[in-house]
Amino acid sequence: MGLPALWRKAGNNQGQDRVALPVFAEKAYGSVTTSHPTSTTATRRDDAPLGERWMAKLDDSTAVSALTIPGTHDSAAYTNAWPFIQTQKMDVLGQLNSGIRYFDLRCGLRDDIVEMVHGSAVLGVTLSMLLDIMYLWLMSHSTEALIVQIKQDRASERSSVHFAHAIWTCIAQAPIRWRTANTTPTLGEMRGKIQLLRRFTGPTLHAYGIDVTQWQDNPSRPFTIYTWHAVQLTTQDHYRPAGAESLPSLITKKGGDVAELLDHAAANTDTGHWYMNFTSAYEFNLWYQLPPREIAVGGYWGFRWEEGMNPRLREYLRGQKGKRRYGIVAMDFPESGADDLIAALIESNHDRASDDAGRVWRMLIAVTLLLAMATLAI
Questions:
Q1: Dist CA 317 CA 345 (whole Å)
Q2: If residue 114 lies in a helix (H) or strand (E), which one and from where to where?
Q3: C-alpha angle with apex 219: 216 to 222, nearest 5 degrees?
Q4: Got the DSSP string for 25-37?
Q5: CA spacing 20 to 30 A to 178: which of 142, 189, 269, 353?
Q6: Model's pTM, two decimal places?
């Protein structure tokens, strides 16, 4: 199914540790509203899926592309606190335990070792170290499935092997944990394993992982990748404005980009079509210097707090009802700005109305049985 000719520009207006009313922007496509501070104490519902084992409740026959999957952008950029390098606060283990199932790994090859990088910054962690954490975690979480996108983010340095060969060597250390097929898997095929999304080139790699090497850099509109093996993946990854944008303007426009693809993913009945939606952005120019955390969580603009992408996304989800497929949602600092954002994304995989009705029926049956037992006792 093709993308609609017109993409709405919309956003939700909500700040760090705040709750806002539903919002969308511009013309006939929506309106912007104000927000109201609330407590920063996290609330946990007893019926919320557990972050560590939320896939256990899902059917084996479900295509992975039919799910809403919380993810992180530049997943390894938690080791460097420089504002324009850091995109995460949780390490990989923390991300796994919180419910993150998609990992965006940016790599560089130095001295024949695959290291984690963020552009020119070397993060001090190797790919093998991160994969070992994932392997150990999957051993005790066999119901879960991970999606890992590996990108060559910089040219190789002082290395005698091809980048693709170095990646293959890393994966070959635990082949039982990987699915390197180039088709869309079901959840049953994926439990306890990692699906590779390949964002690097190399000799004879056309059948190795799902090929996303047609990725576009910072396009203003979503794009769709069509692989040779009938996989379709539509992505929104507009991470930097073309011109100078103030914090309110940038967040509003980015919010519209994200909301637009969320709506499209939920409306598309082709559950084999993948969606990937990046909420991340930054700006660095002569006029504005806006780091990833400020976009994700929010910041002050003048004397007014401007709500970031995470609380806006949480408010968007609050306005949606029932089971809805949003695809992969890759975020910066997903634990910040809205306490239960990851849980809210996970919950969209379930029909909450049906679950509530089921609980009511179980309670009625329990009460009926108790009354019957009390009558017999009399």
A1: 7
A2: strand 113-118
A3: 90
A4: -SGGG-----EEE
A5: 269
A6: 0.82
Contact (Cβ atoms closer than 8 angstroms) between residue 78 and residue 72? no
8 A C-beta contact, residue 149 and residue 194: no
Please report which helix (H) or strand (E) contains residue 107, including its range: strand 102-110
Give the pairing of strands 35-37 and 18-20. Answer: antiparallel
Alpha helix ranges (H) inside 78-190: 92-98, 127-139, 163-171, 187-190
Contact indicator for 186, 61 with CB cutoff of 8 Å: yes
For residues 319 and 158, give the distance between their C-alpha atoms in angstroms, rounded to a whole number: 52
Pairing of strands 113-118, 102-110: antiparallel
Tell me if 258 sits within 8 A of 221, measured CB to CB.
Answer: no
Mean pLDDT of 203-215: 86
Interval 192-200 mean pLDDT:
98
Rounded-to-integer distance, Cα 135 and Cα 178, Å: 10
Enclosing H/E stretch for 116:
strand 113-118
Q: Which residue has the tokens 């179980």?
A: 362
Between 212 and 45, name the one with better pLDDT.
212
142 Cβ partners below 8 Å, 6+ apart?
A: 191, 192
Beta strand 289-290 with 283-284 is antiparallel
104 φ/ψ angles, rounded to the nearest 5 degrees: -105, 100
- CATH number, span 18-37+46-347: 3.20.20.190
pLDDT at 369 over 80: no
**Helix, strand, coil percentages in the chain from 3-state DSSP, rounded to 5:** 30, 20, 45
Q: Which residues pair with 305 in a beta bridge?
A: 300
Let me know: does 126 contact 113? Beta carbons within 8 Å: yes
Residue 218, sorted as left (phi over 0), alpha (psi -120 to 50) or beta, turns out to be left
**Are 177 and 138 within 8 A, CB to CB?**
yes
Counting every residue written for the chain, the total comes to: 378
User: For the chain, what is the total number of helices (H) and then of strands (E)?
Assistant: 9, 18
CA distances (Å), origin 237, targets 34, 218, 330, 332: 27, 6, 10, 13
